[in-house]
TrEMBL record:
Ranges for region Disordered: 1-66
Highest taxon, organism lineage: Eukaryota
SUPFAM superfamilies assigned to the protein according to its UniProt record, in alphabetical order: TPR-like
Sequence ranges of Basic and acidic residues compositional bias: 32-52
Protein's recorded name: Tetratricopeptide repeat domain 23 like
Polar residues composition-biased segments: 21-31
Lineage: Eukaryota, Metazoa, Chordata, Craniata, Vertebrata
Biological source species: Chrysemys picta bellii
SMART domains: TPR (SM00028)
Amino acid sequence: MMQDSPIYIPTDSNHGAVDSHLSQEISTTASEHLDESNNESTARDSEGEEKKMRKKALPMDCAPAPNEKLEQAQKMAEKFIKEKEVYKANRELIRCVALTRIIYGDGHWQLAQAFANLAHSYLILQGLPAQAIEHAESAKRTMLIGIRTPAATPEDKREILGTLVTIYFTLGVAHLAQNNGKESYLSLQKAERLMEELQELDGRVSMGLKISEKDLVIAFGRTCLQQNMLDFATSYFEKAVNAVISTEGDTAPELINLYQKIAQSEQLKKNHERAIAYLLQQAYRLLKDSLKSIIDTYGDFSEKAAETYHIMGSICLAEGKMREAYQLFNKCLQIQIAVYGPRNRKLKDTQELLTALERSPAVHEGNRLLK
């Protein structure tokens, strides 16, 4: 059972007063219900499909109340985000801010949440860091005003913490985009500590949270790389690689960019061999990913397929993976025989590689076990 305790808000010298005030005042001791206003919204309904969705399931003889309009706007925003309709999604998020202010007033955490969602949208969907910072700061100010309304339920506390994670993550990544590394790092540290507190509530991070641990780790890596904190950058990117592999597998496209970042960090540290190793891993994953489409397009026995297997074998050979290299070169040889015939020069080169690899202990033992 969760104890009644104040929410911890991370602080720094720049925002200490705001965050300390929040930390002292926001708690879960209150049991009173959140007030709702039924004032009419002045937001205009859009036409076409959006208008139909807003009217769906509503009585024909009455206009929807503001809270119903808010629910509709939230659903529309989610719909447009999924469909990558950026400007329509942004319009609905602005509508959510207006309706939330009408329903809850200027000092409620749900208004801060609406501002935070809008800020996150400006950053992630539109790549506009200045606007993202402006709305994230509005969310912080609103949360400060809202300290007079304590969290009524444990779920409210989760929502407040999740909103604060979104605020500080958005500020961190937006400052990073503006080359303000110090401010970025401080904001991301706050987001990290808030996420840890959120996880402690019930042993897991809320599924509805906009920010994943992977997102946070990648942002830390980028910030450290920008500030030339190269060892930290490499460590964060490696954590991100592990997170991606554990959830999406070792051929996830996102790994390509992460390996590039690791290689960049290693190159800046003058660790050229490690940089090359990461770039080779990236190339191998690209080739492995593209192999199916190559076979679908050109067939199992084609020059393109043979070239792909040959390059993959060369990468494994460079990394000292003798057994894997042997298998890939052997596959390449079979395709080359079918494509070029038995007397082509390319076959001779591949056969010489296979003969050399057969002398290695790993390949020799593997072949012996297969007999």
